[in-house]
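RECORD TYPE: inverse folding
INPUT: structure tokens
STRUCTURE:
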């Protein structure tokens, strides 16, 4: 059965393309969605691409993904939690509670930016972290997720 990769985007990522283009580039969120769908196709994965500005909605999706992962339907989540990365113990607890495989993602190199972006609550509960490669990071994270899924199937 073809597994789904949930690609979850948090606050302000709906503004991609117009928001601080020097930092986040000119691609829109819809461009990124298409990039992810194409990339998932190449790995025989299905993309489920979502965005919300609301912490609780992201948490609900994480719970949903955890149940679907346990049922063998979901490979894991690629999560760009935006600024919630640096503030949300609740999102980190949700990932841990749902026993969800998460690849944390940032478009920008957060470590080359303000010090408040150097702290992530998500990294400690993530399988891995991808940052600094622009929107191409989504493609790289999908390849990493495909690799982890293949490793599971070899066990
Ligand atoms: C971001 C980095 C965060 O610090 C910021 O708050 C964002 C986007 C990124 O993709 O580079 O909203 O997650």
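DESIGNED SEQUENCE:
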């Amino acid at each position: 059965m073809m597994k789904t990769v949930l690609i979850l985007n948090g606050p302000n990522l709906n503004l991609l393309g117009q928001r601080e283009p020097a930092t986040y580039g000119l691609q829109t969120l819809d461009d990124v969605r298409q990039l992810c769908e194409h990339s998932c196709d190449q790995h025989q994965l299905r993309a489920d691409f979502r965005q919300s500005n609301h912490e609780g909605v992201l948490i609900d999706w994480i719970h949903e993904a955890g149940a679907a992962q346990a049922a063998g339907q979901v490979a894991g989540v690629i999560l760009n939690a935006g600024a919630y990365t640096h503030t949300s113990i609740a999102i980190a607890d949700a990932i841990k509670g749902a026993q969800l495989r998460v690849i944390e993602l940032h478009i920008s190199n957060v470590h080359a930016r303000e010090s408040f972006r150097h702290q992530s609550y998500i990294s400690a509960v993530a399988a891995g972290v991808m940052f600094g490669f622009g929107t191409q990071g989504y493609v790289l994270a999908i390849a990493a997720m495909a690799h982890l899924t293949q490793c599971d199937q070899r066990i």
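NOTES: Residues 4-154 form a domain with the Rossmann fold fold (CATH 3.40.50.9100).
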